[in-house]
Design goal:
By secondary structure, this protein is α+β, with helices and mostly antiparallel strands. It contains ten helices and eight strands. The strands form two sheets. Strands 1, 2, 3, 4, 5 and 6 form a six-stranded mixed β-sheet that branches. Helix 7 packs antiparallel against helix 8, helix 8 (219-239) packs across helix 9 (245-255) and helix 8 (219-239) runs antiparallel to helix 10. The radius of gyration is 19 Å and the shape is globular.
């Protein structure tokens, strides 16, 4: 009899962990984990109580999983996505970048013991393909999450709360600044009197500007922040947010100015891809 269950799993890596420990960020990491775990269950009562949500943290890695009870019901995977986005946002407000991957497969996860093919797949997706501070999700999972949400929550809600964004390299990642994660935002990223997506722009822009304030000589580090700026710039376009002068200057620095054609300019993603090895930490 197999020890494995079918589970949705998140593998999350906290970037720059040595510097986080040196700067005594341990309490921030613990607070983010606690707040994320104690937040209300997404999707309310329609989440099956048998999903058996579990979290294990070791060194600079966090693994969480939920049991997938029915083959066609990927709501537990959507739950993991919601938790992952909430945790990534909590980490960002504390100045911590994270990178990860979500998949579904065979996994053993009891107490502090976790292993299995699904964990290996999630780790390899994170270490080989994620590259930037994003949480990627393979097509085999995004499609089933989308189908489940459209059926269980409703097509109209799903279309207005699409959880994923396709990046410049074809990877799909959690759109953590987008509408799917509005209710999961930390208080510092929410306006006091409204929860509309457009009103979330100023707080999000301030956060990214603060994160990207420092200068880094190592291109493996600087390109991660360049990607974050590029993601913010895309959100400004999609959601009608106002891009600050600081953000525009940063974007222009990488894209180039003037009347040159698109073919002789590089997007931030293309520049980052040319600078950073495929496998980077």
């Amino acid at each position: 009899m197999s020890v494995y269950e079918t589970r949705a799993v998140l593998f999350l890596d906290l970037l720059g962990f040595r510097d986080l420990i040196a700067s005594r960020k341990e309490r921030d990491i613990l607070d983010a984990l606690t707040i994320s775990a104690e937040s209300p269950i997404p999707f309310g009562a329609i989440v099956d109580k048998g999903i058996d949500f579990r979290v294990t943290a070791f060194s600079d890695c966090i693994v969480c999983s939920a049991r997938v009870l029915a083959k066609g019901n990927f709501l537990p995977a959507a739950y993991i996505a919601a938790y992952a986005g909430r945790l990534a946002l909590e980490m960002l407000t504390r100045g911590i970048l994270s990178r990860g991957a979500i998949t579904v497969g065979r996994l053993y996860h009891q107490d502090q013991t976790v292993f299995g093919p699904a964990l290996i797949e999630a780790y390899e997706l994170e270490s080989r393909l994620a590259q930037y501070p994003r949480i990627i999700v393979p097509h085999k999972v995004t499609g089933r999450i989308n189908m489940t949400l459209s059926i269980r929550v409703g097509t109209d809600w799903w279309l207005n709360h699409y959880p994923f964004r396709e990046d410049f390299d074809g990877m799909h990642h959690l759109d953590i600044f987008g509408p799917f994660f509005i209710d999961d935002r930390p208080p510092s990223l929410k306006p006091k009197r409204t929860n509309s997506l457009k009103a979330l722009g100023p707080a999000t822009t301030r956060l990214v500007n603060q994160l990207c304030r420092r200068k880094y000589n190592d291109p493996r580090v600087s390109t991660k922040y360049a990607w974050m700026r590029s993601y913010l710039d895309d959100c400004c376009t999609r959601f009608g947010w106002k891009s600050t002068a600081r953000t525009r200057d940063y974007i222009d620095k990488y894209r180039g100015r003037g009347s040159g054609t698109r073919s002789n300019k590089k997007t931030i993603g293309e520049l980052a891809l040319s600078l950073v090895p495929r496998v980077s930490k």
